[in-house]
Design brief:
Elements lengths: L1 E4 L2 H24 L4 H26 L1 E4 L3 E5 L4 E4 L3 E10 L7 E9 L2 E6 L5 H14 L6 H9 L7 H4 L4
Antiparallel strand pairs: 1-2, 2-3, 3-4, 5-6, 6-7
Helix pairs in contact: 1-2
């Protein structure tokens, strides 16, 4: 079994953004009498930052467990996907720059109407991705072109046309 967690260093910036957002948006609400439209907008923004903060805490407390039976996200809102129920695997790249020189990957594993999403900031992401790719191959889950290219960019070979659905 392998266990993967989001280290504090991976989520610290998210915590900082949450606190900064709540302070910047909450301060005008607390200290001044804003009009109803501005108050409504600021309240919506407070809710957005609270939801972002709750998601950050949940991500920080979650651990991803992999073994021969399946994948489990243990923690708040935990989910389990047995490999026998695996129906889709997507590996998406989200760029933070126009030239695509910086960004992160997100691995989405789906099975039995459940989805577990794992960001590349988690410890041992490459190992986790390779394990999931092998299980996808073993269970006949086809990969789309983008997912195949992203796995290959990680150094995980997925060039079998029978598996990926790519033309021969």
């Amino acid at each position: 079994m392998s266990v993967h967690r989001y280290p504090r260093t991976a989520v610290i910036w998210d915590y900082i953004q949450t606190v900064a957002g709540l302070v910047l948006v909450g301060a005008p609400l607390a200290i001044s009498g804003t009009g109803p439209i501005v108050t409504a907008i600021l309240c919506v923004l407070v809710v957005v930052f609270v939801v972002y903060g709750v998601r950050t805490v949940a991500r920080h407390l979650t651990r991803i467990e992999l073994d021969e039976r399946g994948l489990r996200a243990a923690g708040p809102g935990g989910r389990s996907i047995p490999w026998s129920d695996l129906s889709a695997v997507r590996l998406k790249y989200y760029s933070t720059r126009r030239d695509r020189s910086s960004g992160w990957l997100q691995l989405d594993v789906t099975g039995n109407h459940r989805r577990v999403a794992v960001e590349s900031r988690i410890e041992g992401f490459d190992t986790l991705a390779a394990f999931v790719a092998e299980e996808a191959r073993a269970h006949g889950v086809r990969l789309d072109e983008s997912t195949s290219a992203n796995f290959q960019a990680l150094g995980i070979p997925v060039d079998d046309p029978e598996w990926t659905g790519a033309p021969s």
